[in-house]
């Protein structure tokens, strides 16, 4: 009998798939290493949210055949170990790009229109002081540089085009024709840094992208730049970002991801007015959580049916394959 460990809470629509098919599963919400080593030692599959799965834990899972991520990033699992040991890794590629793109638009609009400040002004009885808050702006014809033109980058481009922005894309791994076909302009990274009114980052974190935006880049940016990162903490150097915001070298920033999560309570970014911070929840709308839970469970079922000739009790009713 197959046995699946589910690390972290997922939407019940996903669990219903296992229940319907009679697949054994158990949920874990204690992520201490010794506990995981013991608890996961007999599993055939792991469904993984944000906890860390390192070699020490994985090497004790002698029956493990698949790790299925609830999400698209997989920097919290030792993929080198998985590769070496021919253990499959699945992601929920089609589930969360719309939610993240909408989150970016929300941050962009909020910062551009000073929504938080105006909200406070009205609630504090200062309706008539509206001219004291300074200018706010339109998105129309502004230039956005999207870094990374994968699932989320593309979904964001569509939304920016809806606001009639000029959309520039930096992604050396995507054909120029593909970028043009999507009504965007391909651009070199440094050229993009010079002209952008907005930059939104949609890259994986690795040795090429860590600290991709740091002190030198802040010297190039326009003063009106709004910089958004919903991809992974560490791509923007937080110290350099803090200084740039503090000195008004750029206009504002929005972060959903941090160098360490949660950020330290004395992280100076928490003290600034011109930044919006969200708790790594860009992908966690109800719709997206349902889709991620279903897709992560389907990935396990489909893989085990194909590779292990899994014999399931209600297989005739299973129509996700
Ligand atoms: N905040 C959240 O809740 C949340 C949710 C989903 C995804 N993410 C993160 O968002 C990021 C993007 O996700 P996605 O689904 O669009 O990924 P994706 O794999 O579809 O797209 C990534 C794109 O980046 C490009 N790329 C890779 N390295 C590059 C480099 N050095 N320079 C320029 N381009 C490069 C690739 O060619 C690809 O087109 C990932 O880091 C993911 O972990 C965050």
Could you explain how this protein is built, in words?
There is one protein chain. This protein has 321 residues and is an alpha/beta fold. It has 2 domains: 3-95 and 286-314, Rossmann fold (3-Layer(aba) Sandwich); 97-277, NAD(P)-binding Rossmann-like Domain (Rossmann fold), CATH 3.40.50. The protein has 12 helices and 12 strands. The protein has helices at 12-21, 33-39, 55-58, 79-84, 97-113, 115-123, 151-162, 176-181, 189-195, 215-220, 238-246, 286-308; strands at residues 3-7, 24-28, 45-48, 66-69, 88-90, 143-147, 166-170, 185-186, 198-201, 226-229, 252-255, 275-277. The strands form 2 sheets. A 7-stranded parallel sheet has the order 8-7-6-9-10-11-12, with helices on both faces. A 5-stranded parallel sheet has the order 2-1-3-4-5. Helix 4 (79-84) links the parallel strand 4 (66-69) and strand 5 (88-90). Helix 1 (12-21) runs parallel beside helix 12 and helix 5 crosses helix 7. The longest helix is centred in the C-terminal third of the chain and has 23 residues, at 286-308. The chain is elongated and about 65 Å long.
Topology:
Elements: E1 3-7, H1 12-21, E2 24-28, H2 33-39, E3 45-48, H3 55-58, E4 66-69, H4 79-84, E5 88-90, H5 97-113, H6 115-123, E6 143-147, H7 151-162, E7 166-170, H8 176-181, E8 185-186, H9 189-195, E9 198-201, H10 215-220, E10 226-229, H11 238-246, E11 252-255, E12 275-277, H12 286-308
Parallel strand pairs: 1-2, 1-3, 3-4, 4-5, 6-7, 6-9, 7-8, 9-10, 10-11, 11-12
Helix pairs in contact: 1-12, 5-7
Nicotinamide-adenine-dinucleotide (NAD) binds at residues 71-73, 96-97, 100, 147-153, 170-174, 202-204, 208-209, 230-232, 256-257, 280, 282-283.
